[in-house]
From TrEMBL, chain A:
The lineage of its organism: Bacteria, Bacillati, Actinomycetota, Actinomycetes, Geodermatophilales. Keywords: DNA-binding. Residues 18-96 form the Winged helix DNA-binding domain. This is DNA-binding transcriptional regulator, MarR family. InterPro entries: WH-like_DNA-bd_sf, WH_DNA-bd_dom, WH_DNA-bd_sf. SUPFAM superfamilies: Winged helix' DNA-binding domain. It comes from the Bacteria. GO terms for molecular function: DNA binding.
UniProtKB/TrEMBL annotation, chain B:
The chain crosses the membrane at residues 30-51, 57-79, 91-113, 119-138. Keywords: Membrane, Transmembrane, Transmembrane helix. It comes from Geodermatophilus nigrescens. It comes from the Bacteria. This is Uncharacterized protein.
Amino acid sequence: MTEAHPRHALDEVIHAPVRFSVMATLAAAEEAEFGFVRDGVQVSDSVLSKTVATLERAGYVEVRKGYVGKRPRTWLRLSAAGRDAFRAHVTALRAIADGPVSAG
Amino acid sequence: MTVPTPESAAALLAEADAAGARVRRESSPAASTFLVTLGCASAGFFLAQPVADGERAVGATAVVYALAVLGAAAALVAGRGSVRAGFSQRFGTAMGAWGAVLAVGLAVGTTVPGLAHDWAWWAPLALAVAAPCLAGAWRERPR
Protein backbone atom coordinates (compact mmCIF):
# COMPACT_ATOMS: atom_id res chain seq x y z
CA MET A 1 0.00 0.00 0.00
CA THR A 2 1.43 3.40 -0.93
CA GLU A 3 1.60 6.22 1.58
CA ALA A 4 -1.01 8.98 1.13
CA HIS A 5 0.30 12.05 -0.65
CA PRO A 6 0.75 14.91 1.88
CA ARG A 7 -1.47 17.14 -0.28
CA HIS A 8 -4.45 15.28 1.20
CA ALA A 9 -3.57 16.75 4.59
CA LEU A 10 -3.65 20.33 3.30
CA ASP A 11 -6.50 22.42 4.67
CA GLU A 12 -8.48 24.14 1.92
CA VAL A 13 -9.54 26.97 4.22
CA ILE A 14 -5.97 27.77 5.23
CA HIS A 15 -4.41 27.18 1.83
CA ALA A 16 -5.50 30.52 0.30
CA PRO A 17 -2.53 32.92 0.43
CA VAL A 18 -3.97 35.69 2.60
CA ARG A 19 -5.65 33.24 4.95
CA PHE A 20 -2.35 31.34 5.29
CA SER A 21 -0.50 34.57 6.14
CA VAL A 22 -3.09 35.54 8.75
CA MET A 23 -2.98 32.08 10.31
CA ALA A 24 0.83 32.11 10.33
CA THR A 25 0.89 35.45 12.13
CA LEU A 26 -1.70 34.42 14.71
CA ALA A 27 -0.07 31.02 15.26
CA ALA A 28 3.02 32.75 16.64
CA ALA A 29 1.08 34.93 19.10
CA GLU A 30 -1.46 34.47 21.84
CA GLU A 31 -3.40 37.39 20.46
CA ALA A 32 -2.70 40.14 17.93
CA GLU A 33 -4.35 43.42 17.15
CA PHE A 34 -6.19 43.76 13.84
CA GLY A 35 -3.85 46.52 12.67
CA PHE A 36 -0.75 44.49 13.48
CA VAL A 37 -2.02 41.59 11.37
CA ARG A 38 -3.14 43.91 8.55
CA ASP A 39 0.29 45.58 8.36
CA GLY A 40 2.15 42.29 8.47
CA VAL A 41 0.02 40.59 5.85
CA GLN A 42 -0.06 43.81 3.78
CA VAL A 43 -3.75 43.88 2.93
CA SER A 44 -6.49 46.47 3.31
CA ASP A 45 -8.86 46.58 6.25
CA SER A 46 -11.72 45.22 4.14
CA VAL A 47 -9.70 42.28 2.78
CA LEU A 48 -8.56 41.36 6.27
CA SER A 49 -12.12 41.68 7.60
CA LYS A 50 -13.40 39.28 4.95
CA THR A 51 -10.52 36.89 5.56
CA VAL A 52 -11.09 36.92 9.30
CA ALA A 53 -14.82 36.37 8.78
CA THR A 54 -14.05 33.26 6.70
CA LEU A 55 -11.62 31.92 9.28
CA GLU A 56 -14.08 32.71 12.06
CA ARG A 57 -16.84 30.79 10.26
CA ALA A 58 -14.46 27.84 9.96
CA GLY A 59 -13.91 28.01 13.71
CA TYR A 60 -10.22 28.81 13.33
CA VAL A 61 -10.11 32.41 14.55
CA GLU A 62 -11.72 34.17 17.49
CA VAL A 63 -12.40 37.90 17.47
CA ARG A 64 -12.47 40.03 20.58
CA LYS A 65 -13.40 43.69 20.75
CA GLY A 66 -11.65 45.76 23.36
CA TYR A 67 -10.38 49.20 24.20
CA VAL A 68 -6.94 50.74 24.67
CA GLY A 69 -7.87 53.83 26.66
CA LYS A 70 -10.91 55.17 24.79
CA ARG A 71 -9.86 53.80 21.41
CA PRO A 72 -11.62 50.67 20.23
CA ARG A 73 -9.40 47.76 19.27
CA THR A 74 -10.10 44.43 17.63
CA TRP A 75 -8.02 41.49 18.79
CA LEU A 76 -7.62 38.28 16.84
CA ARG A 77 -6.50 34.90 18.09
CA LEU A 78 -6.45 31.34 16.88
CA SER A 79 -8.88 28.93 18.47
CA ALA A 80 -7.63 25.54 19.64
CA ALA A 81 -9.08 24.04 16.45
CA GLY A 82 -7.30 26.72 14.42
CA ARG A 83 -3.95 25.94 16.02
CA ASP A 84 -4.40 22.24 15.38
CA ALA A 85 -5.44 22.83 11.77
CA PHE A 86 -2.53 25.18 11.10
CA ARG A 87 -0.07 22.75 12.66
CA ALA A 88 -1.37 19.94 10.45
CA HIS A 89 -1.26 22.17 7.37
CA VAL A 90 2.35 23.17 8.06
CA THR A 91 3.28 19.53 8.59
CA ALA A 92 1.81 18.69 5.18
CA LEU A 93 3.67 21.59 3.58
CA ARG A 94 6.89 20.40 5.16
CA ALA A 95 6.34 16.91 3.80
CA ILE A 96 5.77 18.34 0.31
CA ALA A 97 8.79 20.64 0.57
CA ASP A 98 10.96 17.78 1.76
CA GLY A 99 9.68 15.58 -1.14
CA PRO A 100 10.18 13.73 -3.37
CA VAL A 101 6.57 12.62 -3.69
CA SER A 102 4.73 11.43 -6.74
CA ALA A 103 2.22 13.81 -8.30
CA GLY A 104 -0.61 11.23 -8.23
CA MET B 1 -7.10 23.67 -4.58
CA THR B 2 -3.76 24.09 -6.29
CA VAL B 3 -1.27 21.63 -4.85
CA PRO B 4 1.98 23.43 -4.01
CA THR B 5 5.21 22.30 -5.56
CA PRO B 6 8.10 21.53 -3.20
CA GLU B 7 9.46 24.99 -4.01
CA SER B 8 6.22 26.83 -3.30
CA ALA B 9 5.66 24.76 -0.14
CA ALA B 10 9.13 25.77 1.04
CA ALA B 11 8.30 29.40 0.25
CA LEU B 12 5.12 29.17 2.33
CA LEU B 13 7.04 27.66 5.24
CA ALA B 14 9.57 30.49 4.99
CA GLU B 15 6.71 32.98 5.05
CA ALA B 16 5.32 31.35 8.20
CA ASP B 17 8.77 31.55 9.81
CA ALA B 18 9.02 35.22 8.88
CA ALA B 19 5.59 35.93 10.37
CA GLY B 20 6.67 34.17 13.57
CA ALA B 21 9.89 36.20 13.70
CA ARG B 22 7.91 39.44 13.30
CA VAL B 23 5.60 38.48 16.15
CA ARG B 24 8.58 37.69 18.38
CA ARG B 25 10.20 41.05 17.53
CA GLU B 26 7.04 42.99 18.34
CA SER B 27 5.94 41.00 21.38
CA SER B 28 5.91 42.84 24.63
CA PRO B 29 7.94 41.28 27.45
CA ALA B 30 5.24 42.52 29.88
CA ALA B 31 4.20 39.05 31.04
CA SER B 32 7.68 37.82 31.90
CA THR B 33 8.66 41.18 33.46
CA PHE B 34 5.57 41.04 35.66
CA LEU B 35 6.36 37.51 36.83
CA VAL B 36 9.99 38.39 37.63
CA THR B 37 8.88 41.42 39.68
CA LEU B 38 6.21 39.41 41.46
CA GLY B 39 8.62 36.57 42.30
CA CYS B 40 11.37 38.86 43.59
CA ALA B 41 8.96 41.05 45.58
CA SER B 42 7.35 37.97 47.15
CA ALA B 43 10.72 36.51 48.10
CA GLY B 44 11.76 39.86 49.58
CA PHE B 45 8.52 40.05 51.54
CA PHE B 46 9.05 36.61 53.04
CA LEU B 47 12.72 37.27 53.82
CA ALA B 48 11.73 40.46 55.63
CA GLN B 49 9.43 38.60 58.04
CA PRO B 50 12.10 37.17 60.40
CA VAL B 51 13.77 40.59 60.77
CA ALA B 52 10.58 42.65 60.97
CA ASP B 53 10.34 43.61 64.63
CA GLY B 54 6.83 44.45 65.72
CA GLU B 55 3.52 45.01 64.01
CA ARG B 56 4.56 48.32 62.44
CA ALA B 57 7.55 46.74 60.75
CA VAL B 58 5.45 43.85 59.47
CA GLY B 59 2.88 46.36 58.23
CA ALA B 60 5.58 48.37 56.49
CA THR B 61 6.88 45.30 54.65
CA ALA B 62 3.32 44.49 53.60
CA VAL B 63 2.80 48.02 52.26
CA VAL B 64 6.07 47.95 50.30
CA TYR B 65 5.17 44.54 48.94
CA ALA B 66 1.66 45.62 47.95
CA LEU B 67 3.04 48.71 46.18
CA ALA B 68 5.54 46.57 44.26
CA VAL B 69 2.82 44.16 43.13
CA LEU B 70 0.44 46.98 42.19
CA GLY B 71 3.22 48.71 40.25
CA ALA B 72 4.04 45.51 38.41
CA ALA B 73 0.36 44.94 37.61
CA ALA B 74 0.00 48.51 36.29
CA ALA B 75 3.10 48.05 34.12
CA LEU B 76 1.65 44.77 32.88
CA VAL B 77 -1.57 46.42 31.75
CA ALA B 78 0.20 49.46 30.27
CA GLY B 79 2.84 47.34 28.57
CA ARG B 80 0.48 45.46 26.32
CA GLY B 81 1.50 46.08 22.78
CA SER B 82 -0.31 45.37 19.57
CA VAL B 83 0.66 41.73 19.78
CA ARG B 84 0.61 39.63 22.89
CA ALA B 85 2.70 36.61 23.62
CA GLY B 86 3.35 35.09 27.00
CA PHE B 87 -0.19 34.98 28.35
CA SER B 88 -0.65 31.33 27.72
CA GLN B 89 -1.96 28.72 30.11
CA ARG B 90 1.56 28.58 31.57
CA PHE B 91 1.14 32.16 32.82
CA GLY B 92 -1.98 31.08 34.70
CA THR B 93 -0.20 28.03 36.10
CA ALA B 94 2.66 30.20 37.42
CA MET B 95 0.20 32.62 39.01
CA GLY B 96 -1.78 29.78 40.59
CA ALA B 97 1.32 28.14 42.07
CA TRP B 98 2.56 31.50 43.36
CA GLY B 99 -0.80 32.24 44.99
CA ALA B 100 -0.96 28.84 46.65
CA VAL B 101 2.57 29.09 48.13
CA LEU B 102 1.94 32.67 49.27
CA ALA B 103 -1.36 31.84 50.95
CA VAL B 104 -0.19 28.69 52.69
CA GLY B 105 3.16 30.22 53.67
CA LEU B 106 1.61 33.32 55.18
CA ALA B 107 -1.19 31.44 56.90
CA VAL B 108 1.14 28.94 58.55
CA GLY B 109 3.97 31.39 59.25
CA THR B 110 1.78 33.92 60.98
CA THR B 111 -0.39 31.54 62.99
CA VAL B 112 1.92 28.75 64.15
CA PRO B 113 3.75 29.88 67.30
CA GLY B 114 7.49 30.35 66.88
CA LEU B 115 7.54 30.58 63.09
CA ALA B 116 7.09 34.35 62.74
CA HIS B 117 10.82 35.04 63.22
CA ASP B 118 12.19 31.69 62.15
CA TRP B 119 14.59 31.88 59.20
CA ALA B 120 14.28 28.13 58.73
CA TRP B 121 10.66 28.69 57.73
CA TRP B 122 10.82 31.92 55.77
CA ALA B 123 14.04 31.42 53.80
CA PRO B 124 13.00 28.20 52.00
CA LEU B 125 9.55 29.69 51.57
CA ALA B 126 11.08 32.73 49.85
CA LEU B 127 12.66 30.40 47.30
CA ALA B 128 9.43 28.43 46.94
CA VAL B 129 7.29 31.52 46.31
CA ALA B 130 9.72 32.98 43.77
CA ALA B 131 10.31 29.72 41.90
CA PRO B 132 6.98 29.44 40.00
CA CYS B 133 7.17 33.11 38.98
CA LEU B 134 10.76 32.91 37.75
CA ALA B 135 10.14 29.62 35.96
CA GLY B 136 7.01 31.10 34.38
CA ALA B 137 8.90 34.24 33.37
CA TRP B 138 11.57 32.14 31.67
CA ARG B 139 9.01 30.12 29.75
CA GLU B 140 6.91 33.15 28.78
CA ARG B 141 9.75 35.37 27.62
CA PRO B 142 9.42 36.58 24.03
CA ARG B 143 11.79 34.69 21.76
